[in-house]
C-alpha cells in the first residue's frame, strides 16, 4: 500500500550496443506523435515525438522484434535483424470505434455502445494553455451548451445552460463531476445581502466554481445531455452532467513538462461617452432646460480625464506549471503543480492561485488496483462592484457616469476640489472585496477484479472547502461615508464525503451477445456552515476591513448551518447483439434528507437503443460510410435544488429594541410555512439522434432532436398576509424545452506534411412555460394570463422595475414593459385635440418627450399598457473551429456566436437619462431633440424618463459572432541537439480578437445577475471583457 504514495525514480542506464531510430506514420504517411514503441521481451520502450520519430537503445545482443502501438490502429510488430532505421506504417483498426471507451458516469462504456446524447470536447495541449478556466473550453465547442459570463473579471461568475432552462426557482447549472467526484459550488455570499440592504450582489460578484481546476490537467470532457445519459445521476441530472477527467497516472518512462503562459490584457471596446467640452455644453444646456437663465459651469482649471482609459488599464498575467508523469516499480503517477497570477483591467481585481495535483495508480497484482486522485488549491480572488442593486454603489457605474474631469462639482454647480466622494479613484482607494479559499479534494479507490468479466469498485471522495470573504467600504464611497466606514466578514466551511460501491461487469456470450453494466449504492453527506459579521463606525481607517474588530457598531451576527444527505441505488445494463443492436436500461433511486415523509424517495428510469446500420450486410459495399448509427432514448431525471429543511417548520431569530432603557430583546419566531408534500422536480426527455462517419471517420456528423418536459416545478407562491408570511414552497407548473443540435468534425485535407481540420456545431432550443398552476388575471395589457413578474432590476435611480415576466404559453423570462413610438414632434403635439392629448400617467407628453404606445386607446399610458417587448432566449447558438498543421507549424482559429437573443442594456438606461448631470452616452446628447432637430431617436435635454418601468428603448439585439481565438504554434524537436530535452513548443495567441455585433454595450455575451432566476438577460454595469495577447512556452523533457 505504501508504494502508492512513495515514488523513487531510478537512474536510467546508458549502456547500449545498438541505437534504433525510426518514424511512425499513418496510412497517409503523416507522422503519429505519441505512439508507443517497445522492444519485445524487455522493458525498453519510448514514445514518438511530434514528428513521429523515435530513438531507443537496444539491449546488447538483441535482434528480435519491437511493437508499435497507437490508439485506433492495429498493433504493428517489426523485426529488427541488422537494421537500425525503420519507417513503420500503421494500419487503422476497424474495431477502434467500438472498442474506444468514454466516461459515462459511474464507469465507462464503449463508444459503439452509446445510445444517449453525449458530446466529447477535445482538450489538446495548445487549447488548455491559452484558457484560464474550463468553461472557456466549453464555449462554442459543444452543441446545446451555452456559456455566459456574469463578470469578465478574473474568477468572475459564469452561467452554463445545457439544453435550456428547466427550472423557474431551482438551480439550472449542470452537475460537474471531476474524476468521479461531484464538484460542490456553493456561492460565497456577502453578509450585507443577508440584512436586506441591497448593498451586496452575490450573483454578479460570485466566483467561478470551475476556476479551481487547472485546464492543463484535463484529459477529457464528456457532456451528458439527454435523460437516458444522465438518469444514472437521478435527482442531480436534470440540467445535464459535465464529466471532467484529469490526466491519469502515466505509463512508460518518466516525462517532465513545463508550461508557461504570459498574457497582456487590454480593454476590447470603449463606450462612446462625452468629451470634456461636450460634457460642459450638456451641463449648461441642462441648467438652462431646468429654468435657469445663466450658464453655471465652465472649463476653467478642469483637467480632462477619460475614466475608461484611466481605470481599465492593460494588465499582465502569468501562469507557470510543472508536471511529471510515468511509471516506477508498478506505480503509475501524474504529478502537477504551479501557480497563476491573473490581473484584471481594474488594478484592484485579480486572482492568485496555487495548486497541486497528485494522481496515482498502483497495480498490486493482476486482480487489485489502487488509485488516488488528490487536488489541493489556494485561491485569492479580489473583486469589485458591478451590478449593484442600488445603482450608484458601483465602481463600474462611476467609471461611466463620472464627468470627464478630476474632482467634483457640488449641487450648486461649484467646483469642489476637496470632495472625495463617489469617484472612480475614491472607489479604487476605498473599496476592497477579497475572497480566500483553501480546498482539498481527494478520490481514493480500490478495484478488485473478481473474475475475467466482473469487477468490484469502491471509492471514497472527500471534499473540504474553507472560504472567507472580507469586504470594506471606506469613507470615499457613499455607503462607507454614511456608516463612517463599513466592513463585512463572512466565513464558509463545507465538508462533503461520498462513498460508492459498484459492481461492474462485461460478459460476452456465444460470440454474438455482449452484456455489460454497473450496479451499486452511493451515499453522500454534506455539512455546510456559514457565519458573517458587519461592523460600522470606525475611529480610523488604517486597517480597513481587517480591522473589523475595532468597529464601534455591529449588526447581529449571521450564522447558518445545515447537513444534507443523499442515499442512492443505481443500475445500468447494456446489451449488444453482434455489435449491431444496442439496448440500454438505467435505473436510479434517490432518497434525500431535503424532503420529508412520502416524497423522500424518488425513482428515475431510462431506456435507450441504437442501431449500427453499418454492421448490416447491405452496407458492405458502401465503403465510404464507416459509421452510421441511429439512437433513440427516453428517461426521467430530477432536480432537488431547494434549500434544506423546507419541509420542516423553522424558527428565525429576531431582535427588538426595548422601550425605555434602549435594551435589545431577542426572540424566536416561525420562519416558514412547512410543506410536508414538497417533492422533486422531474424532467422527462425523449431524444433521437443519428451519427454518421464517412471516409474512415475523416468526416463525422451527429444530429440530435429532443423534447424535454419538466413538471412539479419548485416555486414560491404568495400566501395571505393573515398567515404572517409572504410565501411558501409548492410544486406547481410545467416547462417544456425542445430543440435540434448538430455537430460536424472533419479532416478536410491531409497530405504528406499538411492537414486541415474543421469542427462546427449549431443548436436550436425553444422553451415554453406550459403551466404555472396560477389563476389567470390581467397583467398590464394582457388579459386572462397566468403568470408573474420577476424582481426589480435595481432599487436605485435606474430601472426600478422588473425586466422579466413568466407567463403561461410564453418563453421563460420574456421582457415586459412599455412599447415606444419615437419622440413627440411639435407638429404631432399641435395637431392633437387639446382636450385629449396623449398622456403618461395623467401628464401630457410634450414635444421632445418619448411617445409611449397607448395599448388600450384611452389616450393615457399607464401600467395597464405594458406588453411583452422582447425575449432573452436566442434563436440559435453556434461555434466553429478550424486548424491547420504544416510540419511542426500549427494554426488554430475558433469562433462562437448567437443569433436572435435580446438583452436589456440597463447601463445605457442610466447613461441616456438626460435629466441627470452625470456623463452620458454621446449619441444621446449630440443627437438630442431640439426644435431644429425633431427627426431623432433621442429626447430633449432635461426630459425626465420613466424609471418605474422598463421600455423597449433599452432592449437591444444581442446577436454576435466572436473571433474567440487565433493561435499560432511551432514545435521544435530538440532531441538532435539536447539529450534530455525532447521538444520545445512556442504559441502566440489572441483571445477575444473581435466581436461582430450591433450591441452598444461592452459585450453582448453577458448576464449581470448570472444565476438569479428572476433577473435574466440584463447588462447592468458589468465588468468589461478584455482582449488577451498570450505567449505560451512548453518544454518536454
Protein model, in words:
With 1037 residues, the protein is mainly β. It has a domain at 2-93: Carboxypeptidase-like, regulatory domain (Immunoglobulin-like), CATH 2.60.40. Helices cover 8% and strands 47% of the residues. Strand 22 (408-409) and strand 23 form a beta hairpin. The radius of gyration is 32 Å and the shape is globular. It comes from Candidatus Cryptobacteroides faecigallinarum. InterPro entries: Beta-barrel_TonB_sf, CarboxyPept-like_regulatory, Plug_dom, Plug_dom_sf, TonB-dep_OMP_SusC/RagA, TonB-dep_OMP_SusC/RagA_CS, TonB-dep_rcpt-like.
Q: How many strands, what sense, and barrel or not for the largest sheet?
A: 22 strands, antiparallel, barrel
Roughly what fraction of the amino acids lie in strands?
A: over 45%
Give the count of helical stretches: 13
Tell me the distance between the termini: 29 Å
What is the CATH superfamily label of the domain at 2-93?
Carboxypeptidase-like, regulatory domain
Number of strands: 59
- Give the overall form: globular
Organism: Candidatus Cryptobacteroides faecigallinarum
Subcellular location: Cell outer membrane
Membrane topology: Multi-pass membrane protein
Protein name: TonB-dependent receptor
Defining key terms:
1037 residues, mainly beta, Immunoglobulin-like, 13 helices, globular
Secondary structure layout plus pairing:
Blueprint: E1 18-25, E2 36-39, E3 45-47, E4 53-58, E5 65-69, E6 76-79, E7 85-89, H1 96-99, E8 101-103, E9 108-110, E10 118-121, H2 125-130, H3 134-138, E11 145-149, E12 158-162, E13 175-178, E14 181-182, H4 191-194, E15 218-224, H5 227-230, E16 241-246, E17 255-267, H6 276-289, H7 307-311, E18 315-328, E19 331-343, E20 350-363, E21 368-382, H8 395-401, E22 408-409, E23 415-416, H9 424-430, E24 431-449, E25 454-473, H10 478-483, E26 486-509, E27 513-536, E28 553-554, E29 558-577, E30 581-592, E31 601-612, E32 625-639, E33 651-657, E34 664-670, E35 681-694, E36 699-711, E37 714-718, E38 727-731, E39 734-750, E40 754-771, E41 777-779, E42 782-785, E43 787-789, E44 804-807, E45 814-817, E46 820-823, H11 826-830, E47 839-840, E48 843-844, E49 850-852, E50 860-861, E51 867-870, E52 876-886, E53 889-899, E54 902-905, H12 906-911, H13 922-926, E55 955-957, E56 960-973, E57 983-997, E58 1018-1019, E59 1026-1036
Amino acid at each position: 500500500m505504501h508504494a502508492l504514495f512513495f515514488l523513487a525514480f531510478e537512474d536510467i542506464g546508458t549502456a547500449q550496443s545498438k541505437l534504433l531510430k525510426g518514424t511512425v506514420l499513418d496510412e497517409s504517411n503523416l507522422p503519429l506523435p505519441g505512439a508507443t514503441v517497445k522492444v519485445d521481451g524487455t522493458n525498453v520502450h519510448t514514445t514518438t515525438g511530434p514528428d513521429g520519430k523515435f530513438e531507443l537503445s537496444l539491449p546488447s545482443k538483441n535482434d528480435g522484434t519491437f511493437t508499435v502501438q497507437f490508439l485506433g490502429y492495429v498493433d504493428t510488430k517489426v523485426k529488427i535483424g541488422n537494421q537500425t532505421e525503420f519507417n513503420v506504417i500503421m494500419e487503422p483498426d476497424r474495431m477502434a470505434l467500438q472498442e474506444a471507451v468514454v466516461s459515462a458516469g459511474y464507469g465507462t462504456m464503449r463508444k459503439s455502445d452509446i445510445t444517449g446524447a453525449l458530446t466529447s470536447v477535445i482538450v489538446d495541449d495548445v487549447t488548455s494553455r491559452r484558457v484560464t478556466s474550463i468553461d472557456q473550453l466549453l464555449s462554442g465547442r459543444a452543441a446545446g451548451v451555452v456559456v455566459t459570463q456574469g463578470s469578465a473579471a478574473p474568477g468572475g461568475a459564469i452561467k452554463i445552460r445545457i439544453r435550456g432552462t428547466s427550472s423557474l426557482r431551482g438551480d439550472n447549472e449542470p452537475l460537474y463531476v471531476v474524476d468521479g467526484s461531484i464538484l460542490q459550488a456553493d456561492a460565497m455570499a456577502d453578509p450585507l445581502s443577508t440584512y436586506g440592504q441591497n448593498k451586496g450582489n452575490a450573483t454578479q460578484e460570485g466566483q467561478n466554481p470551475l476556476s479551481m481546476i487547472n485546464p492543463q490537467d484535463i484529459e477529457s470532457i464528456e457532456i451528458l445531455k439527454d435523460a437516458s445519459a444522465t438518469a444514472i445521476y437521478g435527482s442531480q441530472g436534470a440540467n445535464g452532467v459535465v464529466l471532467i477527467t484529469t490526466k491519469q497516472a502515466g505509463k512508460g518512462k518518466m516525462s517532465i513538462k513545463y508550461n508557461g503562459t504570459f498574457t497582456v490584457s487590454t480593454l476590447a471596446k470603449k463606450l462612446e461617452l462625452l468629451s470634456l467640452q461636450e460634457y460642459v455644453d450638456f451641463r449648461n444646456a441642462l441648467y438652462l432646460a431646468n429654468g435657469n437663465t445663466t450658464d453655471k459651469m465652465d472649463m476653467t482649471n478642469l483637467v480632462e480625464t477619460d475614466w475608461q482609459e484611466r481605470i481599465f488599464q492593460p494588465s499582465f498575467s502569468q501562469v507557470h506549471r510543472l508536471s511529471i508523469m510515468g511509471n516506477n516499480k508498478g506505480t503509475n503517477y501524474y504529478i502537477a503543480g504551479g501557480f497563476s497570477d491573473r490581473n484584471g483591467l481594474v488594478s484592484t481585481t485579480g486572482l492568485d492561485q496555487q495548486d497541486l495535483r497528485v494522481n496515482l495508480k498502483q497495480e498490486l497484482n493482476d486482480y487489485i488496483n489502487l488509485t488516488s486522485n488528490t487536488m489541493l488549491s489556494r485561491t485569492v480572488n479580489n473583486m469589485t462592484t458591478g451590478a449593484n442593486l442600488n445603482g450608484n454603489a458601483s465602481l463600474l457605474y462611476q467609471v461611466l457616469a463620472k464627468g470627464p474631469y478630476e474632482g467634483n462639482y457640488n449641487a450648486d454647480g461649484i467646483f469642489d476640489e476637496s470632495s472625495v466622494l463617489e469617484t472612480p479613484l475614491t472607489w479604487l482607494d476605498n473599496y476592497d472585496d477579497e475572497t480566500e479559499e483553501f480546498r482539498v479534494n481527494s478520490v481514493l479507490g480500490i478495484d478488485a477484479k473478481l473474475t475475467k468479466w466482473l469487477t468490484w469498485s469502491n471509492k471514497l471522495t472527500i471534499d473540504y472547502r474553507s472560504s472567507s470573504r472580507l469586504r470594506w467600504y471606506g469613507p470615499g464611497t457613499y455607503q462607507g461615508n454614511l456608516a463612517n466606514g463599513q466592513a463585512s466578514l463572512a466565513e464558509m466551511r463545507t465538508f462533503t464525503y461520498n462513498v460508492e460501491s459498484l459492481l461492474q461487469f462485461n460478459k460476452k456470450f456465444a460470440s454474438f451477445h455482449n452484456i455489460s453494466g454497473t450496479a451499486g449504492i452511493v451515499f453522500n453527506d454534506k455539512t455546510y456552515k456559514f457565519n458573517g459579521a458587519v461592523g460600522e463606525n470606525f475611529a480610523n481607517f488604517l486597517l480597513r476591513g481587517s480591522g473589523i474588530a475595532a468597529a464601534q457598531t455591529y449588526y447581529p451576527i449571521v450564522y447558518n448551518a445545515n447537513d444534507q444527505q443523499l442515499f442512492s441505488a443505481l443500475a445500468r445494463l447494456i446489451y449488444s447483439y453482434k455489435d449491431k443492436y444496442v439496448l440500454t436500461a438505467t435505473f436510479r433511486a434517490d432518497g434525500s434528507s431535503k424532503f420529508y415523509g412520502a416524497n423522500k424517495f424518488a425513482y428515475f428510469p431510462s431506456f435507450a437503443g441504437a442501431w449500427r446500420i453499418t454492421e448490416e450486410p447491405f452496407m458492405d459495399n458502401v465503403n465510404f460510410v464507416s459509421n452510421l448509427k441511429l439512437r433513440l432514448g427516453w428517461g426521467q431525471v430530477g432536480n432537488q435544488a431547494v434549500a434544506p429543511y423546507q419541509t420542516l417548520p423553522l424558527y428565525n431569530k429576531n431582535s427588538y429594541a426595548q422601550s425605555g432603557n434602549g435594551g435589545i430583546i431577542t426572540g424566536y419566531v416561525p420562519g416558514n410555512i412547512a410543506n410536508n408534500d414538497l417533492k422533486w422536480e422531474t424532467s422527462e426527455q425523449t431524444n433521437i439522434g443519428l451519427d454518421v462517419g464517412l471516409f474512415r471517420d475523416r468526416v463525422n456528423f451527429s444530429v440530435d432532436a429532443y423534447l424535454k418536459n419538466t413538471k412539479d416545478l419548485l416555486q414560491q407562491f404568495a400566501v395571505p398576509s393573515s398567515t404572517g408570511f409572504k410565501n411558501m414552497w409548492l410544486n406547481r407548473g410545467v416547462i417544456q424545452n425542445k430543440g435540434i443540435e448538430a455537430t460536424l468534425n472533419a479532416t478536410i485535407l491531409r497530405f504528406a506534411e499538411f492537414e486541415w481540420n474543421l469542427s462546427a456545431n449549431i443548436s436550436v432550443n425553444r422553451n415554453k412555460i406550459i403551466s404555472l398552476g396560477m389563476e389567470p388575471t390581467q397583467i398590464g395589457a394582457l388579459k386572462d394570463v397566468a403568470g408573474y413578474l420577476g424582481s426589480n432590476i435595481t432599487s436605485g435611480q435606474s430601472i426600478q422595475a422588473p425586466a422579466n415576466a413568466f407567463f403561461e404559453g410564453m418563453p421563460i423570462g420574456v421582457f415586459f414593459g412599455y412599447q415606444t413610438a419615437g419622440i413627440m414632434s411639435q407638429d404631432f403635439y399641435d395637431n392633437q385635440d387639446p382636450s385629449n392629448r396623449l398622456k403618461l400617467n395623467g401628464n401630457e407628453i410634450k414635444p421632445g418627450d418619448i411617445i409611449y404606445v397607448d395599448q388600450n386607446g384611452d389616450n393615457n399610458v399607464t401600467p395597464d399598457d405594458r406588453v411583452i417587448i422582447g425575449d432573452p432566449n436566442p434563436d440559435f447558438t453556434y461555434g466553429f473551429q478550424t486548424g491547420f498543421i504544416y510540419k511542426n507549424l500549427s494554426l488554430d482559429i475558433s469562433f462562437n456566436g448567437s443569433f436572435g437573443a435580446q438583452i436589456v442594456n440597463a447601463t445605457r438606461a442610466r447613461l441616456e437619462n438626460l435629466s441627470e448631470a452625470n456623463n452620458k452616452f454621446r449619441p444621446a446628447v449630440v443627437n438630442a431633440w431640439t426644435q431644429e432637430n425633431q427627426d431623432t431617436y433621442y429626447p430633449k435635454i432635461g426630459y425626465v424618463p420613466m424609471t418605474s418601468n422598463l421600455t423597449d428603448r433599452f432592449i437591444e439585439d444581442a446577436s454576435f459572432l466572436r473571433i474567440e481565438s487565433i493561435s499560432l504554434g511551432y514545435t521544435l524537436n530538440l532531441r538532435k541537439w539536447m539529450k534530455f530535452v525532447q521538444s520545445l513548443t512556442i504559441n502566440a495567441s489572441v483571445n477575444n480578437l473581435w466581436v461582430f455585433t450591433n450591441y452598444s454595450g461592452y459585450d453582448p455575451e453577458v448576464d449581470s445577475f448570472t444565476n438569479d432566476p428572476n433577473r435574466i438577460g440584463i447588462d447592468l454595469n458589468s465588468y468589461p471583457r478584455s482582449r488577451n495577447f498570450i505567449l505560451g512556452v512548453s518544454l518536454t523533457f
